[in-house]
Task: inverse folding
């Protein structure tokens, strides 16, 4: 009987290992950047193309490798970082497993050029699918240049699961920024083809954050500092008002290594409790320094999962550090235990005589008489902000049905217990009175009783359906801007925005990428001139990060956000004609009861409810 168990060839074993180490181009970028840092480089340059699928190149000015090491580094479990078993428990370098280059070489075409400073020439090595193609001497400056081409060229099953170039580019930018944040004292460059995404000069952490995310972040940062014999906490948190719906700006670093830790994240979230809404997430750039013997990073090949020997203590120290930072900078109320005197309140020595207020009385005043006044917004009866459009047959039918509901309930019916509303004779031209309450709600009467309509949600439903119809028919009207606007974004957000450009244009925007991280806006959807587009685009980007569904579903999300930005706001005064137009337009929509995201638009006080309350 033949034996069935056998040892896999190295090429097969390397491809299997590559599935854990190199799941996508960004994972290869991370490994190469960390190798450059371990080599002592202070200037690192990353170039990639097509989301890293066709090319990833990392160039550094580190110590380089000898001719023998240049070939040996592609073997499995070949590393210069550890030599004895105990070294695993006191790791101070980025890499140590000796798997990354072997895994990359198994599923890509790799070219390595390297030279040590003391050697006259460098070494050029070419490997494809773990097979050595060539090795020869070359002329180059001290350091290392490694190029990865045609990633997953020999693993088509893995290659087909890669996302589009925009998505893979965003992941590469994320990995690059994590490494750059962890080492603000190093010079970094990042290019997508010929486009420079980042060019970061050495400095302190604050400077690095501002360089990467924009000058506005300088005023958003609150320092966090705490030193104990267990852990040293440093870095910054963002002020509570800059909390976001996604966790885009949440960074933990342990010994200058980016890590993921729900445990530590909970500590920060609890420190912000009561200061931000529950659905928002605080931003932070927090660094933890612990003794290498007190942290285990050998949990997963990605090395982003770690365990601390004193997790509970670190949790409470971190939580306390964040609370202290919030209180120290007058963001959270802090008690002053040193003050033992009462607060000094200004007062006047001479008290003026109190005068009895005079009360006027107008005998001709009628509280039930309504006087139409023009709205402050300058409206002329069309609160929706667009020119009147022809209604479809269905919309006209709904609008006519709405008008037929303007029938006042008879007071006699309450006394007799009947539920039939009194109908005025046809000769009487009666229109149900509508009035605005708190500049937020429209109150009117229907056959069923009183109806209270939320003016913002009502208008949101109207705008949404008209935007939806225009987008589906590809006839979105665009209003050209007299002066184009330019919006600045971080490189990662800019990649998301470029991915969204087809949807943005479909909604009626005349916009296009501008430079390396900006968008120029030349036209806007008709009727949206009062919209805060900076907020709309920010919410689009955040929603896309949170929801990676197909673009058709995402277009619906964007329609809702754009409609919310264009809709009439609460607190705007409306005249009678504007209220009538809004109500008629609302009841010509397909669903006047709820907003596109399911929130109620109106509430009804039925005659039965009123009779019960008044015990009639």
Result:
């Amino acid at each position: 009987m033949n034996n069935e168990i056998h040892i896999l060839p190295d090429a097969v074993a390397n491809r299997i290992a590559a599935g854990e180490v190199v799941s996508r181009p960004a994972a290869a970028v991370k490994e190469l950047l960390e190798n450059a840092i371990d080599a002592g480089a202070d200037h690192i340059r990353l170039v990639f193309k097509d989301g890293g699928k066709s090319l990833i190149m990392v160039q550094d000015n580190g110590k380089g490798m000898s001719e023998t090491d240049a070939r040996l580094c592609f073997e499995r479990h070949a590393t210069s970082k550890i030599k004895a078993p105990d070294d695993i428990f006191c790791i101070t370098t980025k890499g140590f497993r000796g798997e990354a280059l072997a895994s990359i070489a198994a599923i890509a075409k790799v070219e390595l050029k390297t030279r040590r400073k003391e050697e006259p020439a460098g070494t050029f090595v070419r490997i494809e699918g773990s097979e050595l193609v060539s090795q020869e001497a070359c002329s180059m400056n001290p350091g290392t240049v490694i190029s990865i081409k045609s990633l997953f060229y020999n693993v088509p099953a893995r290659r087909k699961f890669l996302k589009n170039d925009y998505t893979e580019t965003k992941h590469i930018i994320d990995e690059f920024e994590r490494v750059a944040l962890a080492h603000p004292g190093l010079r970094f460059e990042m290019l997508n083809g010929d486009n420079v995404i980042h060019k970061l000069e050495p400095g302190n952490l604050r400077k690095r954050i501002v360089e990467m995310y924009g000058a506005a972040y300088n005023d958003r940062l609150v320092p966090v500092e705490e030193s104990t014999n267990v852990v040293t906490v440093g870095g910054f948190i963002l002020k509570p008002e800059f909390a976001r719906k996604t966790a885009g700006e949440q960074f933990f670093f342990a010994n200058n290594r980016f890590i993921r830790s729900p445990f530590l994240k909970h500590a920060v979230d609890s420190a912000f409790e009561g200061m931000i809404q529950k659905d928002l997430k605080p931003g932070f750039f927090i660094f933890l320094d612990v003794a290498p013997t007190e942290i285990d990073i050998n949990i997963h090949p990605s090395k982003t999962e770690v365990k601390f020997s004193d997790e509970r203590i670190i949790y409470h120290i971190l939580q306390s550090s964040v609370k202290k930072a919030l209180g120290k900078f007058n963001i959270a109320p802090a008690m002053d235990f040193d003050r033992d005197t009462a607060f000094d309140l200004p007062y006047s020595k001479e008290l003026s005589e109190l005068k009895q207020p005079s009360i006027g009385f107008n005998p001709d005043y009628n509280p039930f008489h309504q006087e139409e006044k023009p709205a402050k917004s300058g409206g002329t009866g069309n609160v929706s902000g667009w020119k009147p459009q022809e209604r479809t047959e269905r919309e006209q039918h709904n609008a006519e049905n709405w008008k037929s509901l303007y029938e006042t309930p008879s007071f006699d019916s309450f006394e007799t217990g009947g539920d039939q509303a009194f109908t005025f004779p046809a000769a009487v031209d009666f229109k149900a009175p509508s009035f605005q309450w708190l500049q937020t709600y429209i109150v009117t009467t229907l056959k069923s009783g009183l109806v209270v309509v939320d003016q913002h949600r009502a208008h949101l439903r109207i705008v949404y359906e008209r935007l939806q119809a225009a987008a589906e028919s590809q006839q979105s009207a665009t209003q050209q801007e007299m002066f184009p606007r330019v919006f600045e974004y971080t490189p990662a957000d800019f990649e998301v925005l470029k991915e969204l450009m087809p949807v943005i244009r479909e909604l009626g925007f005349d916009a296009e990428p501008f430079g390396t991280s900006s968008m120029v806006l030349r036209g806007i959807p008709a009727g949206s001139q009062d919209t805060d587009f900076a907020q709309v685009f920010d919410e689009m980007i955040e929603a896309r990060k949170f929801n990676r569904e197909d673009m058709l579903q995402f277009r619906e999300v964007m329609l809702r956000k754009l409609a919310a930005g264009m809709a009439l706001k609460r607190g705007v005064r409306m005249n009678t004609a504007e209220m009538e137009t809004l109500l008629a337009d609302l009841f010509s929509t397909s669903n006047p009861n709820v907003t596109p995201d399911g929130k109620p638009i109106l509430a009804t006080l039925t005659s039965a409810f009123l009779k019960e309350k008044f015990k009639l």
